[in-house]
Amino acid sequence: MATGKLRLTENVLSFWKSIVFLITPVILCPLPFYYANTENSKIAACAYAVIIMAVYWTGDILPLAVTALLPIAMFPILGVQPSRKVCINYLNDMNFLMIGGLMVAVAMERWNLHKRIALKAVLMVGVEPRWLMLGMMSVTAFLSMWISNMATTAMMVPIAQAISAEILKEKGPEEREEGQGQKKTLTSDDENTVLLSTRTSRNEQSQELPLENIAVEKCDDDDDDDDMDLLADQARPSAEQADKVTKGLLLCICYAANIGGTATLIGTAPNILVVQTVQTMFPKSPGIDFASWFFFGFPTMVLTLLLAWLWLQWQFVSQSCVPGCASRRGCGGKCQRHKNVAAYKAIRRQYDELGPFSFAESVVLVHFILLVLLWFFRDMKFIKLENGQAAGWAYFFVRDYVTDSSAVLLICLSLFIWPARPPSRGREDLHPSDDEPGPSILDWPTVERNLSWEVIILLGGGYALADGVKVSGLSAWMGQGFRGLEGFSPAFIVIIITIMIAFITEFSSNTSAASIFLPILGTLAQGICVHPYYLMIPAAIACSFAFMLPVATPANAIVFSYGRIKVLDMAKSGLGLNLLCLFVLNIAINTYGVPLYQLQDFPPWTVCTAPVTTAGPSGTPANITTLVGN
């Protein structure tokens, strides 16, 4: 009997997602029914839809993109908005900005430009673990600024696996037992050669790699057996050291991918969401363009990336693992260096396999640079001309007609037309068949196959949610409830918000968390009379600071799937990194973020729903002095 009950319980629990899917709307249904015939009917109906979407997103009850489509069905049925107005949110200006950015990323991936950049950077920094980690993080962060974090991580992790296999070989069982029993000395025949064994990644077949030569600078006194023992120990890292550094190399990639996406508008979905939410809730605001976001996001990204590198050094790379200068007995204090020739050759071999810099790569690189320039110089609000008008090429056209999405789609159109190889007329070195037209840099089957359509739908669901919250009056109702926070400093509120969001995104999608919280924070800013950017921009960036769990981001999941990282490893290193990044973020928004976004003044394009006595002094967010004094 007990066994039957246990089996029934297990069967029920195996369908827990279906149960939550069915029960959640039923449990919450009293909310819209109770307020059905009151003036708050739309508010209750919108809150009903928002809570259901939050439960589905947080519990991963449905695929994220499917949950993002719920407003199309629920808002019209509940009387929040007509369907034609809800659907507009799924293909608006910001969504096309993301589509264009993803198309450029597809072009980079198709012609391996991103891989060439990564391998070249690794060759430049060398193969020492400390600087190799910095090089890997810098490349990953840079690529994540322009292509998706998941694609960047998927490309960089195999490179890290190959590098770690060459640099830090794992000791075999026999070698470990021998090392525990006694030291192994080097003879004259193997003085410059150390035999190490390794195993490949979980996605490759196990095989024994070729012997690896370690180039060693000899001491003047090399007759001392103890010196040779020490030399062997330095040349061969222990199994524990090898494992630690390998984990550090893998973790640094997913962490750098999450951090790098915060630097640009197209780097990650929450960045785009905050721009569209501002436009939806505050239509008279000047908005946030690519340049204004970059001037705040890029310095913050660099600072957090450096702190992440130092943190991972302290956690995973000990001094004994890092080749350098060390004084040793019998060498007279001379420098000892160990250069891993095999590791360098392995990286060089991967780079050489790409061949010479191709015409297609040159075309993609030129288009990419042109796109960045178009984004930066479209609307330079920080430069005022004599007539008071801001500088920028967009002012040659009808005012406010040209946006960042216009620029990126122009570049995408060019990529669909531009050939992948130069014309062959007049060149005798080419085969006659090369006279035929080559493929274009981009074609639709490639875009259709590689474009992340899920991200586009997720963004649309977030925009629809923010629009519904505003139209239904739910945002105004929440603004009344937020008046109780007037007694707290806005700086303290930002700290609490960023910590809360950073830990919530450990269990839910970054995009879904931003979709839920950004409209609430926009209303909260009105309720406590501070600049909306002061709360919304740090919240959007905090959505990317999810470092503790494999399920937090696709980048974390990819690294975890290789089997070298344990959940405890990620949680221990991720917790400290979360706190460090949040510290930098809060310092940034209260320092150079203030003059950049004029946070010291409450903007005229929004409405304060709480009484304000005096504004804060220059250099601090509006109302901060009054709130602190209360």
TrEMBL record:
Gene Ontology molecular function terms on file: solute:sodium symporter activity; succinate transmembrane transporter activity
GO CC annotation: plasma membrane
Protein topology in the membrane: Multi-pass membrane protein
Basic and acidic residues bias: start-end ranges: 171-181
Swiss-Prot/TrEMBL keywords: Membrane, Transmembrane, Transmembrane helix, Transport
InterPro entries given in the database record: Na/sul_symport_CS, SLC13A/DASS
Residues in coiled coil: none
Region described as Disordered: 171-191
Keyword Cell division belongs to the record: no
Primary site of residence: membrane
Subcellular location: Membrane
CDD domains: SLC13_permease (cd01115)
Membrane-spanning segments: 12-35, 47-78, 90-111, 131-148, 290-312, 357-377, 398-418, 487-504, 516-533, 539-563, 575-594
Superkingdom of this protein's organism: Eukaryota
Keyword Membrane: yes
Recorded family membership: Belongs to the SLC13A/DASS transporter (TC 2.A.47) family. NADC subfamily.
Protein name: Solute carrier family 13 member 2-like isoform X1
Organism field: Branchiostoma belcheri
Gene: LOC109465155
